[in-house]
Specification:
By secondary structure, the protein is α/β, with parallel strands linked by helices. It has a single domain, classed as Rossmann fold (3-Layer(aba) Sandwich). About 40% of the residues lie in helices and about 15% in strands. The chain has 13 helices and 8 strands. The protein has an 8-stranded mixed sheet with strand order 3-4-2-5-1-6-7-8, with helices on both faces. The protein is globular. It starts with a helix and ends in a 20-residue tail after the last helix. The structure holds adenosine-5'-triphosphate (ATP) and magnesium ion. Magnesium ion (MG) binds next to helix 2.
C-alpha cells in the first residue's frame, strides 16, 4: 500500500521558497523532438549558474536521463521507491556533473511495468512526491522531463509545475504538436506560463529555404518562444558517452540563454552564438 502519510504535507518540513518559474515541466506530445536533450542542458545551465537544481525523469516508457548524464551505474532507487517510502530523497537522487560544477541531482525513472505493478494509485501520487522531493532537496529549480504522452504531463501540470516548456523541431508537424501540447497544458490548474523551445534548428537548411526559418517559425506559432537550440551533428555521439555538450558549444550556449529567459532575464535570441546572431529580441 502507498504510504499516504509519508507523502502528505508535513509541517515539520520547511516550506522552501523556490525560484520564480522554479517548477518546470518539459514536454511534447511528439516523440524524439529533444525533450530530454533540452531538459538535461537547461538543468545543467541552471546548476552552472549556482542554483540547486533537481531534474526528474518522468518518462517511464523510455527514460533516458541517466544515460545522458552518464550515471546509469549509480542508479539504485527510482521514483516509485520514494513514493512507497522505501528510500529518502537523498537515497533517490543521483548527483551528476553540471556546468561549472554546479549542484545538479537526478531523480531516475522507474519503468512503466515496475511503476504500475505497485497499483493504480501510483500515478496520482506523482505530484505529491515531486512536491515533497522539491522541499527535501531544497531545490531552487526542479525540472520534469516527460515522455511523448499526455497523461504524466497533465498530472504534473495540474498538481506541480508552474512553468511549461513545449519542445518542437524545425517542422510544421512538430510545431503543430507543440501547439496542441501547449493548449492542453494551458488548461492545467497549476501551469501559469507555457513557452516554446525550438530544437535541432538547422540554419543552413533555413538559408537554403529547404526548412522553415526561425522568424517564420516564431511568427507562425501561437506559443511564445523561449529559445532555439541549434542542430549539432555530434550531439548523439556525445550523449551516448554520457556527456553533456561542451560548455562552449552552441547547444550549451543556447541552453544557457533559454535558462536565463526562464529565470526572467532578457537575452537576445542568438546571444553568444556568432554564426546565428540576429538582432531579434524576445
Ligand atoms: N539539437 C540537436 N542536434 C542534433 N541532434 C539532436 C538535437 N537534439 C536532440 N537530438 C537528437 O535527437 C534524438 C532525440 O532526442 P531526445 O532523446 O532528447 O528527444 P526526446 O523528445 O526526449 O525523445 P523521447 O520522446 O523518446 O523522450 C537524440 O538522438 C538526440 O541526440
Ligand atoms: Mg526523452
Amino acid at each position: 500500500m502507498i504510504d499516504m502519510i509519508r507523502l502528505g504535507r508535513d509541517d515539520s518540513i520547511r516550506e522552501r521558497i523556490m525560484k520564480r518559474n522554479g517548477k518546470i515541466l518539459i514536454s511534447s506530445l511528439k516523440g524524439g523532438v529533444g525533450k530530454s536533450t533540452a531538459a538535461s542542458c537547461i538543468a545543467s545551465a541552471l546548476a552552472g549558474e549556482g542554483f540547486k537544481t533537481v531534474i526528474a525523469d518522468l518518462d517511464f516508457r523510455s527514460g533516458s536521463l541517466d544515460i545522458l548524464f552518464g550515471v546509469s551505474d549509480r542508479v539504485v532507487f527510482t521514483l516509485d521507491d520514494y513514493i512507497l517510502g522505501r528510500c529518502s530523497a537523498k537515497d533517490l537522487t543521483v548527483s551528476v556533473n553540471a556546468e561549472a560544477g554546479g549542484a545538479l541531482m537526478l531523480c531516475p525513472a522507474p519503468s512503466e511495468t515496475v511503476f504500475e505493478s505497485h497499483g493504480a494509485d501510483m500515478y496520482g501520487m506523482i505530484p505529491y512526491a515531486l512536491e515533497r522531493l522539491a522541499e527535501e532537496t531544497e531545490a531552487d529549480y526542479f525540472i520534469c522531463d516527460t515522455g511523448a504522452d499526455s497523461r504524466i504531463p497533465k498530472l504534473i501540470g495540474d498538481g506541480f509545475a508552474e512553468y511549461a516548456v513545449v519542445v518542437c523541431e524545425q517542422s510544421r508537424t512538430s510545431l503543430r504538436a507543440a501547439e496542441n501540447t501547449a493548449e492542453k497544458l494551458s488548461e492545467c490548474d497549476g501551469v501559469k506560463t507555457v513557452r516554446l523551445l525550438i530544437n535541432n534548428y538547422d540554419n543552413a537548411a533555413a538559408r537554403k529555404k529547404s526548412r522553415a526559418g526561425i522568424l517564420e517559425m516564431i511568427d507562425g506559432c501561437a506559443v511564445k518562444c523561449i529559445g532555439v537550440l541549434p542542430r549539432d551533428e555530434k550531439l548523439a555521439a556525445i550523449q551516448d558517452k554520457g556527456l553533456l555538450p561542451n560548455r562552449d558549444s552552441p547547444v550549451a550556449i543556447a541552453s544557457r540563454n533559454a535558462a536565463a529567459r526562464i529565470r526572467g532575464v532578457e537575452v537576445p535570441l542568438f546571444s553568444g552564438m556568432k554564426r546565428l546572431r540576429r538582432k531579434v529580441r524576445f
